[in-house]
Amino acid sequence: MNEEMFGPISDQATPPVYRYFNGKDWLTSSSGKTSEIISPVDGSVVGSLQAVTREEIDAVMDKAAHAQVAWEKMPLNHRVKIMHLAADWIRQNQDYLISLMVREIGKSHGESKSEIARTADLVDYYANEAQSIKGETLDSDNFPGFDKGRIALIERAAYGVVVAIAPFNYPVNLSASKIAPALLMGNSVVFKPPTQGGISGLHLVRIFEKAGVPEGVLGCVTGTGEEIGDYLVSHPRAAMVAFTGSSDTGYAIAGKASMKTLLFECGGNNPALILPDADYNLTASELVKGAFSYSGQRCTAIKYVLTTPAVRDEILPVLLRTMDSLVKMGDPRSPDTKLVGPVVSEKAAEYIESVINEAVAGGAKIVRGGKRDKAFIEATVLTDVKPDMKIVSEEIFGPVLSFITVASNEEMANIVNGSRFGLQACIFTRDEGSGIILAALLNVGTVQINGSPQRGPDHFPFLGVKRSGIGVQGVRYSLEAVSRLKPVVLNKPQ
Ligand code: NAP
Question: What CATH fold (topology level) applies to the domain 3-266+471-486?
Fold first, then answer.
C-alpha cells in the first residue's frame, strides 16, 4: 500500500531521485541538479532531491495564486474534512514514515513515533479549532465624535500564497504545523522542505494531496536554501513567509522578504535556573531530558545551567547518576537507544566537537563525555563555562550541557537577558512564588517552572523574542497568525 501511495513522488531507482510537486503532478526538474541525502545513521544514500529552476518556481507560484481564490471560497467545513482525512492518512502510514525519518535524520525510533502521532493529533486539533474561529462587530459610537452610525463587520481573511519553510529536526511535524493552519484559513501554500529531512517532507505533501487538497493549492519545491531560498522568499506572488530554522537563516530571510508578513520560529539557547531549594532528583531528570533528547537538536533544548557554586556541587553527582540510568548512546533504529543517537551529519558533529574543544581551551572542564565518533557526540557536561564562550553564546545543536555559576538571582537574569536568543527558560524551585517572581525578570518567550522547556502541548502559545522568532504559534494562535482581519464598514444612513 505504501508503494502505491507514495510511488509517484520518486523515479523508483535505488536510491531514488525525488520529484517536486507543482500542485497537480510530481515532476522532474529541467535543472538536472540534485543533492544526495546521506543517512547520519550509517552513511548510506537515502535518495536525492532536485533543485528546481526559477521558472519552475514561477509556475508553482502562479498555480498557487490562482487556486487560492476558489480555495478560500470553499466552505470551511469542507476544508476541515480534508484535514481530518490527512490526519488519518498520517496515522495509516505511520510505520513507513517512522522508518524513513529514522534513516533520513537519525531521530530515534521512539522519538520519530511520537513526532508522527503528535502530527496527526495536531492536524485534527487545527481542523477542530478552525471551526470555532469567528469574527466580531464593532459600533462606531464607542469612540468620541462618532455618535452616528457606522458598524464594522470584522472577519478573518487569508493572506494569499504562504511560503512555508521547515527545518530538518522535525521534518513532518513542523511542516504540517505550517501547512495545515495556512490551508484551513484559506491560503494556498508553496512548501520548501529542508534538504536533509526533505524526503520525509515530500511524503507529507503526498498525504495532503491524497486527502483531497485541490489542484494548485499545495505545491512543493525542492532545492537547498542556498539554491532556491532567496528567489522563493522574495517572490512577488508570496504574501507571507512562515519559517522555522536557525536565527541566522531567519535574519537573512527577513532581509529578503521585505514587506511580506513574517511568522518565524528560530533558534534557542535555553537556560535552566536552579535555586537552592530545588528538588534535585526532579531537576536532574528534567535536565537530562531537556539537554539530551534527540541529541540536543531541539530548539527548546536546555543548553546551560545557572546556579550558585554550592548548588552546582550538590546537583552534579545527582545529574551524573541520572545520566547513567537514562542516557545511552546508540543506533537510533534500535528501540533500546535512550536519548542520544547521531547528530544530523558528520560535519555538524565535527563543528560541535570543535566548539567543545574551544571551551576547554578557554578554561571549561569536561565532567562527562566530550568525545566524537563519526556523527555521534557523547552526551557532554561542562563546568566552569563563561557566558561569552561560544558554547553558550551561540546555539550549539548537539548534546552538550554547560554549567555557569552565579552569585545571585539578579546575575542569572542579567545573563539570560544578555543573550541574543529568547525562546524559553526554566526555573527549578520548591517555592513556586519565587519562581514566578524570577520568571518576571526574564525576557524570553516562555518560562517553565519545574519542567524542561518544550513546545507542547501544541495549543499553548509558543513564541520567541529577540533572535528566537517573530509572531506567536500554538493552535488558535497559529490560525490567527496565518489570517488577517478584514473589516467591512457599513455607514448607516443619517
Ligand atoms: P536552517 O539551516 O536555518 O534551515 C531551515 C530551513 O531554511 C531549511 O529548509 C533550509 O533549507 C532553509 N534555508 C536555508 N537557507 C535559506 C535561505 N537563504 N532562504 C530560504 N530558506 C533557507 O535550520 P536547520 O538546521 O534546518 O534547523 C535547525 C534550526 O532550526 C535550529 O536553529 C533550531 O533552533 C531551529 N528550530 C527552531 C524551532 C522553533 O520552534 N523555534 C523549531 C525547530 C527548529 P536547506 O535545508 O535546503 O538548507
Answer: Aldehyde Dehydrogenase; Chain A, domain 1 (3.40.605)
Residue 421 has pLDDT above 70, yes or no: yes
Domains of the chain: which residue ranges?
3-266+471-486, 270-458
> Rounded to whole angstroms, how far apart are CA atoms 3 and 269?
41
User: Is the pLDDT score of 337 beyond 70?
Assistant: no
How far, in Å, are 266, 421, 467, 471 from residue 248 at the CA level? 8, 11, 8, 17
pLDDT tens-place string over residues 250-290: 999 999 999 999 999 999 999 999 999 999 999 999 999 99
User: pLDDT per residue over 11-61, tens digit each?
Assistant: 999 999 999 999 999 999 999 999 999 999 999 999 999 999 999 999 999
Residue recorded with cell 539530551: 292
| C-alpha of residue 410 to centroid of ligand 1, in Å | 33
Ligand 1 centre to CA of 356 (Å) is: 23
Strand residues in 52-184 grouped as ranges (E)? 136-139, 150-158, 161-165
Read off the C-alpha cell for 77.
Answer: 467545513
Q: Which atom of ligand 1 is nearest to the CA of 473?
A: 40
Class of domain 270-458 as given by CATH: alpha beta
Atom of ligand 1 nearest to the CA of 462: 40
For atom 6 of ligand 1, the residue with the nearest CA is 167
Maximum alpha-carbon separation in the chain:
79
Band of the pLDDT at 149, cuts 50, 70, 90? confident
H or E element at residue 421: strand 421-422
